[in-house]
Amino acid sequence: MDDNERRHFWKENGYLVLEEVFSPAEVESLRGSADRLTARAEGLTQSTDRFILRTFGDGGGAPIVQQIAEPHELGGEWMALARDPRILDTVEMLIGPNIQLYYSMMMMKPARQGSRAPWHQDFAFFVHDRASLVACQVYLDDSTLENGCVRVVPGSHRDGLLNHFHGDEFTEMVQGDTAEFDAREVALPVKAGGVAFWHCMTLHSSHPNTSAFPRRAIVFEYKDANARLLKGSFSASEVRAAGMMLRGKDPRAELLSAL
Q1: Half-sphere exposure of 111 toward its Cβ, with a 13 Å CA cutoff?
Q2: Which of 7, 25, 27, 250 is most buried (most C-beta within 10 Å)?
Q3: Strand (E) or helix (H) holding 179
């Protein structure tokens, strides 16, 4: 697809997959960096603000690192990846020229383990005054149907924000009957080195890893620098007043310069 076709596909479907963005050599280097980063959690028995651990199965095994928060703050290679023009050029096409990095997360599904992520919209975790945020997932391993690839509901970014609450509790998942989403879902298997983008309102989920191979990827959430976090974001752990400018102009700086 050329850029015009990609824009149209994004507008209609709320997601986009680009294969072979990064070379095998680049992927292998990132895998080594991921191994070294994960090794920093050795000896931990409980989650920290950086390393999120989980015990799978019957709970009798040792906890496994499932997520690593803000890897771009833990290694220069991840910050360089977040700034890579091969990513930012597409992000600019999708949300405009003034780009902030809102957060990053290493996502890992160990072989024959991993958990199911139920249907949800990222926007529910950090509601802004406009839905101009986009997730970018860079794959370090092949993502397949067997190892729990991301699944999306095409066009759901146009349906508005759905209920993620049970009473007063934010549940991190859409409430009610989700059978319709299961019927409409599209699976997104992506080879290592590929990149998937999805709109902050796009419904997505994933299944457990039933394969003999791990599935690792890093997610960057980018936002239009003009977007403002609304007070009382649903998920306290996701509240960030602003992101890090990576490209374009920071509108806050323009306001301050007038003082």
Answers
A1: 6
A2: 27
A3: helix 179-184
